[in-house]
């Protein structure tokens, strides 16, 4: 069997069976298998492509198999998903896609399952992707289900996206957003301000003043920079800069990154704090993830203590001039990078997370010094995780807290004009989008203690 397909299958199995994250596991699997650059690219495309369109592929498999996906043995189902992706969405020859997928079934589930897998894949190969989509859409129970099948998003997610876009008067952009979620994002790097420069051969990003893109793999540039150049989404860069540049830095200011892992925004804040004479502290509940934060600031000549505490308690251990609350969220704004999240998350996760988000932001507001600013950031555009959380915390805080115009702040930081429409609720929240800005769907709100 082709080693790239084996790596892709093993990763997909881990995602399905043990809730692994493909973006974390796949690089290790590629390195362990010693894949060539060409095979590594194939393994990445097969893994991410299969996971992105899993729901659509499951509907196709159910039709071709005459049974629901839940009635199919999980290893067999994952091999079928991988096979369907190759048949319908790649240039892999049909006979190779069928043969290698059947061999994966034989290796994991025995000879008896191979006949079933072979029959299902041959039925799938009788139609193109467009023909399958047309067939599925005819049986859709609603327009939203039809759109969800075509663009491979659960109905509840696309409805949440439509509401978030409608809050900007842009509901008509929904299909553009869904299509963007199914594209691989460009690799963006950050040169930590004051410490590193953009390489001469690199192209500057359109919005972040510290961002750039290379024409090839980033590993060499990152390794040679000693921790002062990092792979980081442009939206993440802008979120950190919105806090560090919301006002001129006064020497001696005290800053806190309350939910710091994996540490990309922490590194930008550390560089900005070092340049301005401020102090930065970071916190991350998970010891393993706290190590990532320590590693992220190793290239900055500033001591950044990293605590391992519940952020709701940690915030109360001082008074801070600037606090970043990069809150745990559904991650629905990063579906390009975490394709399995769209199928793994449920509306119940939103309810659970919003309660935590309110508590974290409330604790952060309570820890602000007079005139201090908190940036509330989520990698999710879901209004329950963004606008509703900020509104609830503002109501509870009363006149003690005012909201700043984050759109104006982000626009002032950006290297070129950003399309940031006003929000229907009258808030100052800035919302970035994959289809409009080429970033993750990052939400940024700024609150200041009077």
Q: Number of DSSP helices?
A: 21
Strands, count: 12
Computed over alpha carbons, the radius of gyration is 23 Å
What share of the residues does DSSP label as strand, in percent?
5-15%
Largest sheet, described in full?
8 strands, mixed
Distance N to C terminus: 65 Å
Low-confidence stretches: none
Shape: globular
The residue-averaged pLDDT reads 96
* Broad structural category: alpha/beta
Approximately how much helix is present in the residues? Answer: 40-55%
Short description:
With 450 residues, the chain is of the alpha/beta class. It contains 21 helices and twelve strands. Helix 15 links the parallel strand 6 (279-283) and strand 7.
Which descriptors would you attach to this protein?
single chain, 450 residues, alpha/beta, eight-stranded mixed β-sheet, four-stranded antiparallel β-sheet, 21 helices, 12 strands, 12% strand, globular
Please tell me about this protein's structure.
There is one protein chain. Helix 15 links the parallel strand 6 and strand 7. With 450 residues, the protein is of the alpha/beta class. Helix 1 (3-18) packs parallel to helix 3, helix 3 (37-52) crosses helix 5 (74-89) and helix 8 (129-138) runs antiparallel to helix 9 (143-151). Strands 5, 6, 7, 8, 9, 10, 11 and 12 form an eight-stranded mixed sheet that branches. The N and C termini lie far apart (65 Å). It has 21 helices and twelve strands. 51% of the residues lie in helices and 12% in strands. The protein has helices at residues 3-18, 22-33, 37-52, 54-65, 74-89, 94-109, 112-124, 129-138, 143-151, 155-166, 174-181, 219-224, 234-244, 264-276, 287-296, 311-314, 341-344, 347-366, 387-397, 406-413, 434-437; strands at residues 189-191, 203-204, 211-213, 229-231, 254-257, 279-283, 306-307, 320-326, 368-378, 401-404, 430-431, 443-449.
